[in-house]
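Q: Entry one of two.
A:
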Amino acid sequence: QVSVVETGGGSVQPGGSLRLSCVVSPSDLYSVAWFRRAPGQGRAGVAGFYATDEERTDYASTVKGRFIISRDLASNTYYLQMNDLKPQDTAIYYCAVDRLTGGSLLLESRFRYWGQGTQVTVSS
């Protein structure tokens, strides 16, 4: 069984930054993606990281240039650095994990293992 635990949510003013963390166990070469569910909306892919030699990343157009996904292999921790946050970034953020090869990283149907979610609120 794969364990996925997110931390790092909170409240921030527009233009601020937050960093979300996702700790995954046991250790393996996982592909990881962050999804979010805004109030009244479905869950949408935000950013993904492919566990390949290329270490490919994918970003939704709404966050490209503002969010950065990365990992620390030694601690099995994946990060989502969120900069220049906007009120429309307010959502519950979920970390999703699986052993994937090829295809899009931003499709929730591809991931079997999910964290419990962490709330991010952007408001003045």
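Q: Entry two of two.
A:
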Amino acid sequence: VQLQASGGGLVEPGGSLRLSCVVSGFILDYYAIGWFRQASGKEREGILCISKGNDITYYKDSVKGRFTISRDNAKNTVYLHMNSLRREDTAVYYCATDLGYGNCPQDFDEYQSWGQGTQVTVSS
């Protein structure tokens, strides 16, 4: 089981980025994928998740209306679409799966497989 996040970079406040999470070793169609982030000196926090049925669960209220998530099972890829980026969105972003029944977990401890992170820096 592998997950690989990419697409990070430097963006100005108000800008947009799309992160990708490419998975392998399991059939993406059957599982939920979540996105998390960790800012320097802070704990990792959940952002949002997409279920196998494309239901979206927001773990963090401050990204509602700015971030969304989508999946392309044929490409084994889940995307995090980030708009109206703020300086406080600067962090290392990770994707993860619980390899469960396809619903988004409420308990982050259920996430068992993680990708390496991709750095997002929002700065002018």
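A: Comment on entry two: The mean pLDDT is 97. The radius of gyration is 13 Å.
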